[in-house]
Design a protein that fits this description.
By secondary structure, the chain is an all-alpha fold. The chain has 4 helices and no strands. GO terms for molecular function: site-specific DNA-methyltransferase (adenine-specific) activity.
Protein backbone atom coordinates (compact mmCIF):
# COMPACT_ATOMS: atom_id res chain seq x y z
CA UNK A 1 0.00 0.00 0.00
CA UNK A 2 2.88 2.38 0.72
CA UNK A 3 4.22 1.94 -2.79
CA UNK A 4 0.89 2.87 -4.35
CA UNK A 5 0.50 5.96 -2.17
CA UNK A 6 4.00 7.24 -2.92
CA UNK A 7 3.57 6.70 -6.66
CA UNK A 8 0.19 8.41 -6.56
CA UNK A 9 1.27 11.41 -4.48
CA UNK A 10 4.92 11.89 -5.47
CA UNK A 11 5.13 10.31 -8.92
CA UNK A 12 7.95 12.41 -10.45
CA UNK A 13 10.10 12.36 -7.31
CA UNK A 14 9.53 8.66 -6.82
CA UNK A 15 10.42 7.76 -10.41
CA UNK A 16 13.54 9.92 -10.20
CA UNK A 17 14.62 8.19 -6.99
CA UNK A 18 14.10 4.72 -8.47
CA UNK A 19 16.73 5.36 -11.15
CA UNK A 20 19.40 4.35 -8.64
CA UNK A 21 17.97 0.83 -8.44
CA UNK A 22 17.61 0.11 -12.14
CA UNK A 23 21.08 0.04 -13.66
CA UNK A 24 23.13 -2.95 -14.88
CA UNK A 25 25.05 -3.07 -11.58
CA UNK A 26 21.85 -3.73 -9.61
CA UNK A 27 21.05 -6.93 -11.50
CA UNK A 28 23.36 -8.88 -9.19
CA UNK A 29 22.78 -11.22 -6.28
CA UNK A 30 24.95 -9.30 -3.80
CA UNK A 31 23.16 -5.99 -4.47
CA UNK A 32 19.80 -7.74 -4.14
CA UNK A 33 20.80 -9.48 -0.89
CA UNK A 34 22.03 -6.27 0.73
CA UNK A 35 18.85 -4.40 -0.17
CA UNK A 36 16.64 -7.27 0.91
CA UNK A 37 18.33 -7.10 4.33
CA UNK A 38 17.94 -3.31 4.44
CA UNK A 39 14.27 -3.61 3.43
CA UNK A 40 13.61 -5.96 6.32
CA UNK A 41 15.28 -3.65 8.86
CA UNK A 42 14.30 -0.06 7.96
CA UNK A 43 11.20 1.75 9.11
CA UNK A 44 11.24 4.72 6.69
CA UNK A 45 8.19 4.09 4.50
CA UNK A 46 9.46 6.05 1.49
CA UNK A 47 12.76 4.15 1.36
CA UNK A 48 10.91 0.91 1.99
CA UNK A 49 8.63 1.59 -1.01
CA UNK A 50 11.64 2.32 -3.25
CA UNK A 51 13.42 -0.86 -2.21
CA UNK A 52 10.21 -2.91 -2.46
CA UNK A 53 9.81 -1.88 -6.10
CA UNK A 54 13.39 -2.99 -6.81
CA UNK A 55 12.98 -6.28 -4.92
CA UNK A 56 9.70 -7.03 -6.63
CA UNK A 57 11.20 -6.46 -10.08
CA UNK A 58 14.27 -8.60 -9.46
CA UNK A 59 12.91 -11.38 -7.28
CA UNK A 60 11.82 -14.68 -8.74
CA UNK A 61 8.74 -14.09 -10.95
CA UNK A 62 7.77 -10.89 -9.12
CA UNK A 63 6.47 -12.76 -6.09
CA UNK A 64 5.82 -11.14 -2.74
CA UNK A 65 6.16 -13.41 0.26
CA UNK A 66 7.10 -12.90 3.89
CA UNK A 67 8.33 -15.48 6.41
CA UNK A 68 7.07 -15.92 9.97
CA UNK A 69 9.35 -13.12 11.17
CA UNK A 70 7.69 -10.77 8.67
CA UNK A 71 10.78 -10.58 6.45
CA UNK A 72 10.65 -10.46 2.65
CA UNK A 73 12.14 -13.77 1.52
CA UNK A 74 11.95 -14.34 -2.22
CA UNK A 75 15.13 -15.49 -4.00
CA UNK A 76 16.91 -13.32 -6.58
CA UNK A 77 16.48 -13.95 -10.28
CA UNK A 78 18.83 -12.38 -12.82
CA UNK A 79 17.08 -10.90 -15.85
CA UNK A 80 18.61 -10.04 -19.21
CA UNK A 81 16.48 -6.91 -19.60
CA UNK A 82 16.00 -4.17 -17.05
CA UNK A 83 12.78 -4.60 -15.08
CA UNK A 84 12.02 -0.90 -14.47
CA UNK A 85 8.32 -0.27 -14.93
CA UNK A 86 5.35 0.71 -12.83
Amino acid sequence: MNLFNFVKNYFLYFIDDTQFFFTPRTNKLDFYSIHCFIFNKISNNYQKALIFLYLNRYCYNGLCRYNLKGWFNIPFRSYRKQQHSL
